[in-house]
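Field: COMPLEX_INPUT
Field: COMPONENT_COUNT = two
Field: RESIDUE_TOTAL = 574
Field: MODE = joint
Values follow.
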Amino acid sequence: AAPLNLSYKIHIATENNFPTAAGLASSAAGYACLVSALARLYGVEGELSEVARRGSGSACRSMLGGFVQWQRGERPDGRDSLAHQVAPETHWPELRVLVLVVSGEKKQVGSTAGMQTSVDTSPLLKHRAEAVVPERLALMMRHIRERDFEGFGQLAMRDSNQFHATCLDTFPPIFYLNDLSRHIIALAHRFNAHHGRTKVPVSRPPRPVPPPVAHTLHAGPNAVIFTLADTVAEFVEVVRRSFPPAANGDQFVRGLPVGAASLPEELLAAVVPEPVPGAVRYILHTK
Amino acid sequence: AAPLNLSYKIHIATENNFPTAAGLASSAAGYACLVSALARLYGVEGELSEVARRGSGSACRSMLGGFVQWQRGERPDGRDSLAHQVAPETHWPELRVLVLVVSGEKKQVGSTAGMQTSVDTSPLLKHRAEAVVPERLALMMRHIRERDFEGFGQLAMRDSNQFHATCLDTFPPIFYLNDLSRHIIALAHRFNAHHGRTKVPVSRPPRPVPPPVAHTLHAGPNAVIFTLADTVAEFVEVVRRSFPPAANGDQFVRGLPVGAASLPEELLAAVVPEPVPGAVRYILHTK
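Field: COMPLEX_OUTPUT
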């Protein structure tokens, strides 16, 4: 269809198939979608990530597929704060994402307001931004290029923890993690420990099968687990046994199909000590 | 009595009137007591804080009364890592401590082992030790010398939060705070907000009455609240209404006597939204 004239008025109706304002980047997805749809409708071409960024900073990232870096930029007006693709979505086909949706509750503090308070009050955030992030960013790009899941996973976990540390260093403190988040983090560490990967390796041991999982939690209690395709079924079963679903048992796993897995007794004993029924609402399996 | 000859063998029996291994410095109290008692028994004189420090680092602080600084020292063997008194216990007679004992559970990770893992893995702890603590230490001494409760309280809260931030930045992460700790921290902030003291003051407003409270949480979920004498009764009543005691209602407040206080309706509405019965086991009121 030919592009609309810009003078045309439109009615916008949006729908989210994700929990909103729960630390799952719903505003990024929403603004990226809005900008893409409007650009196509009106025939706007050119750099759209800068436009999306005005709605919600992280929306610029969501304009591209695969692995995307959001560059801070140098200009005071922020116009060079853009996203670019580090690797396309075909680069690491075995990488999987499991979103553990624990609660549809709204965040205590919105991300943008929270970030501003952190910038104003947290000495640790200043140090993180100046001294820690640049080095970690370069390291993360290398792990992605080399498809090094162990390096990728450990750095993802450490950086997620450090983000939450700076929230706690904010005054008044911001808590995005709750007891259930801690429970899920501990579950991932027990799972990895069982597969012999707890410690920071001094010399790199030969890669065992299956590889471990990596947790990352954003501005909310929902947990995102990175893992490789051949670990998905086993870890999903661990989550199901740890948080037995209440009523919606058949919709507990959504997204890409997940195979069946039966857990060895010693894994169950080591990793799933005491089930908490209903605590995880559902798991979204995606790439 | 004359001192015992060092060849005498002794039987040691100890008892704690505090929860053990719950982030309330029970090992510091225990070792300080042991060293004092043995020194008196055997007639040992001289610098005992260095001896106490060998049992548990923080025990050197507990050898002295009042406000005590534990100096890091410079020597590799640690023999100049000693405590000294900043001000005697008579310096600030209005200052009060309320210990909210929430659970006798053992810590997930002992403080000494946890600290070592943090030193090994947390980039934020390194920055905190090098760049943040020296400045804050000097500031805290000034607040104590000047009996500036507002400065003292805010710095105590921020530094407590930053300690927990470095625990979270440790890998694997250490969590000493749980949902109840967060609940108590939020309660203190609401109480202060109600008394008009939420924000970091840009210019210092005239001091209102009553002054605010300050939370600090150590290596466990129990909370320590600093406040001034004329706020104790009101805040204790706020805690009682927020966490109505179960069976032991008459032993809910221990230590120094606490007067009765009735809470204005608007304070109740603003500060005590939803009571959680039984969550706080008891309050210890001390100086």
